[in-house]
Design brief:
Strand content: under 5%
Helix content: 55-70%
Radius of gyration: 14 Å
Structural class: mainly alpha
Shape: globular
Number of helices: 5
Number of domains: 1
Number of strands: 0
Order of helices and strands: HHHHH
């Protein structure tokens, strides 16, 4: 049943679940106060979401995650990627 669920998610989103799990595993021991680590994570999430992230938005996301109190997870980063420029 779990396999069918993942296949359904893959079909709906176009995102390979293996890639999602690999990204999640890489996040477990990551240092989220390190700018390079966070930039790499933002790039990976953007690639999974098939989104281009302008440098300005990447900088905003990185600064928010490094200096802010928001939890660092794929949901937070995905929401930030979908924010409209103000």
């Amino acid at each position: 049943m779990e396999n069918n669920l993942f296949k359904g998610i893959e079909k709906k989103t176009g995102v390979n679940m293996k890639d999602v799990f690999e990204l999640a595993n890489s996040m477990q021991n990551a240092n989220f106060k390190d700018e390079t680590t966070v930039r790499n994570l933002v790039s990976k999430v953007a690639a999974l979401a098939n989104r281009k992230v302008p440098k300005e938005l990447e900088d905003k996301i990185v600064n928010t995650l490094i200096n802010g109190n928001k939890p660092v997870d794929m949901g937070t980063i995905s929401k930030m990627l979908n924010e409209k420029k103000k």
